[in-house]
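Backbone-to-sequence.
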């Protein structure tokens, strides 16, 4: 599937055949042309002879470090975004690479979802913040037979018929967005658009124009009229993911639109009527956010008309085997592969694993295992389940508590690094774990020298 008429060209630099294969395959599936280099020397040679749209390098290479490539790109002024792949837990390397000019890093084992997100941001591809499903497209249902997921299915059937706002809670990766799509698809608006917006990923200064749209000339750079999310979802459903991340000022504006069913584009004097069903979701406890003064109570009441709670995968252990086999079947057939068997020990490891990232994490684990296994059988080692992190992070030492600011910075830094490690460097998930917004996370990483250039 090509992502654009222009074919993007990426250079991947690694000497591990397995990882190279995995990166190559994933990028190719995204329609990106790939060249490979196995050493610093080969990479510098390729970069000086050819233009690439993206460069992805391992940190450890036979003749040096990936960092040298990042530095060379910065020194030569080559216009190519570069990201590094670091060993599990080696955050110092990641920080050094970011300081030297890398735009992002991935830590091993590489999560394919993070890889795709990183590639999309680097190439400025659409779909990083807003996803649009045109009317009539059908996504898949929810897997599992545990009582909790059965209840969810029944509630979805019921609420699909009404147009009342729905508030979906549940951990990251537990299927909140999928449930929202099902409500849309099973309802009377299924032939109209479903617009999913990640509220935590939209820069605060762009929020109003993104939500409400603008008229040509409304501000510098507004060269054309543009519709916002409300217009785009007209007649259909607007899904506000991570709604707790909306700044208070935006919450007021959103409440007004929901109450009055009217939107005024920036630079417009007239209001226009909008007819949009609102579904929202967050992994946070919205009632607690209200209590803490971070979320407006009036908006909370407007949104929380019907509440739907998605169960965590570890609370559906009896379903893990079935979900695993169904996901494997889908992944194998999508890539035209024969479906490998799942070794008994591998299945046992999955059933006992905690899945902090829920079904999404299971999908990533299986996608990677498919690429790493011998084609016949998936073994426990192909799953590369994350080791427990607690033992690996050194506690802050009890002494040295002054100057107080330095001490607090160290504590904060360690908490952020631990959250990043636990989530395999998924910053959205890490922010969730820390209980702060994506924006706050970006700000803190910047302040602490854990630079982060990705929107
Ligand atoms: N019960 C389920 N059956 C099948 N697939 C599921 C189920 N739950 C989640 N998934 C899959 O897991 C992935 C993540 O789901 P989804 O995006 O809906 O989660 P989410 O709760 O919205 O995550 P986040 O909080 O990070 O936005 C998707 O690929 C989705 O299809």
């Amino acid at each position: 599937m090509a992502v654009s008429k222009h074919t993007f060209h990426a250079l991947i630099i690694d000497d591990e055949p397995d990882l190279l294969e995995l990166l190559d395959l994933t990028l190719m599936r995204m329609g990106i042309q790939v060249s490979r280099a196995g050493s610093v020397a080969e990479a510098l040679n390729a970069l000086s002879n050819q233009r690439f749209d993206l460069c992805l390098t391992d940190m450890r290479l036979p003749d040096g470090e990936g960092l040298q490539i990042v530095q060379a790109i910065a020194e030569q002024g080559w216009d190519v975004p570069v990201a590094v792949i670091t060993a599990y837990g080696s955050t110092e390397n990641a920080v050094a690479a970011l300081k030297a000019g890398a735009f992002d890093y991935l830590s091993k084992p590489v999560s394919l979802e993070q890889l795709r997100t990183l590639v999309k941001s680097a190439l400025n591809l659409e779909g990083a913040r807003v996803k649009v499903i045109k009317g009539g497209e059908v996504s898949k249902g929810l897997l599992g037979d545990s009582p909790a997921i059965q209840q969810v299915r029944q509630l979805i059937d019921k609420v699909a018929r009404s147009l009342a706002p729905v508030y979906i809670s549940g951990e990251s990766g537990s299927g909140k967005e999928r449930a929202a799509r099902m409500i849309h698809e099973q309802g009377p608006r299924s032939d109209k658009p479903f617009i999913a917006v990640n509220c935590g990923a939209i820069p605060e200064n762009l929020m109003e124009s993104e939500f409400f749209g603008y008229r040509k000339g409304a501000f510098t750079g507004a060269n054309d009229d543009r519709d916002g999310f409300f217009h785009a979802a007209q007649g259909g459903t607007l899904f506000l993911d991570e709604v707790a991340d909306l700044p208070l000022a935006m919450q007021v504006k959103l409440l007004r639109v929901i109450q009055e069913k009217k939107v005024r584009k920036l630079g417009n004097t007239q209001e226009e009527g909008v007819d949009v069903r609102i579904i929202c979701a967050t992994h946070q406890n919205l009632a607690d956010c209200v209590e803490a003064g971070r979320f407006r109570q009036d908006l909370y009441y407007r949104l929380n008309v019907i509440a739907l709670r998605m169960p965590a995968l570890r609370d559906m252990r009896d379903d893990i085997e079935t979900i695993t086999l169904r996901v494997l079947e889908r992944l194998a057939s999508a890539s035209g592969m024969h479906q490998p068997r799942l070794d008994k020990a591998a299945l046992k490891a999955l059933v006992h694993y905690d899945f902090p990232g829920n079904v999404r994490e299971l999908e990533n684990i299986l996608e990677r295992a498919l690429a790493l296994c011998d084609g016949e059988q998936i073994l426990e080692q192909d799953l590369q389940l994350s080791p427990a992190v607690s033992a690996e992070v050194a506690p802050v030492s009890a002494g040295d508590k002054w100057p107080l600011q330095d001490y607090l910075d160290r504590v904060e830094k360690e908490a952020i690094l631990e959250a990043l490690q636990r989530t395999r460097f998924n910053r959205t998930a890490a922010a969730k774990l820390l209980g702060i917004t994506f924006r706050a996370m970006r700000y803190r990483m910047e302040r602490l020298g854990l630079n982060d250039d990705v929107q």
